[in-house]
Amino acid sequence: MKSLVSKLSVRLMFKHLKLVTVESCTGGLIGKTMTDIAGSSDWYEGGFITYSNQAKNRLVNVPLELIEKYGAVSIEVAEAMAKGGGEHFPDCVSVAVTGIAGPGGGSLEKPVGTVCIACQYSSELKTRKFTFLGNRDEVRHKTVEEAINLLLLMAMKKN
Hints:
Blueprint: H1 2-14, E1 18-23, H2 29-35, E2 44-49, H3 53-60, H4 64-70, H5 75-88, E3 92-99, E4 114-121, E5 124-131, H6 136-157
Parallel strand pairs: 1-2, 1-3
Antiparallel strand pairs: 3-4, 4-5
Helix pairs in contact: 1-6
């Protein structure tokens, strides 16, 4: 994981970008992973832990109606979370994750391991939906890895 974060940090610094995170199912693990790297304050601005629906609404302006319509674990909510992070820090790349890490909470439609990730910068938005296998820790760590991969994809394209 450190090699992915190192690669991301180099790319962000080269592009003069900073990162903001909006996390639900990972509970701050993405931010922790970023700040495990010395010098991360050069490219990591900060993050929001929006575990509850109310936190998503109050901290990053996700409309409660959107959560009611699509569910907290949805591409639509992940996009709104990423946009909300970007509204607070408009010069940053924003990544948001929401999911069901387990062991409970899943359904037939959204089983344990369902995770939605969104990455936003300026007017560009990229999203991914996954169904990870594994226990709670494995789902959360796979989410962090895929969030970094999506960030790398976004950072590679920016001038």
